[in-house]
Design goal:
This protein has about 80 residues and is mostly helical. Helices cover about 80% and strands about 0% of the residues. It is found in: Membrane.
Length: about 80
């Protein structure tokens, strides 16, 4: 696969993985999660988990890494949602 395709995929994975960090920081600072949907985040976590399994089935380290990290970040948000209600 050409390097520019790998770079586009890597950049997309990095952006969509790291985009959850500002949300976590905001929740921790304000200790407020009223505007965060539990159903949406649980659904997203399930979808990301399936992407992780897919990455394992096709032995794709980039897919596994991006979705494994994303899953941890979303689970962190869910934990904070349950903690701060």
């Amino acid at each position: 696969m050409p390097i520019y395709i790998e770079l586009v995929g890597s950049l997309a994975a990095a952006i969509t993985t790291l985009c959850w960090i500002p949300q976590i920081i905001k929740i921790v600072r304000h200790r407020q999660t009223d505007s965060i949907s539990l159903v949406t985040n649980v659904s997203l976590a399930l979808g990301v988990l399936l992407w992780l399994f897919y990455g394992m089935m096709i032995s794709s380290w980039p897919v596994m890494a991006a979705n494994g990290i994303t899953l941890l970040l979303i689970l962190t948000i869910l934990g904070l949602k349950l903690r701060y209600g």
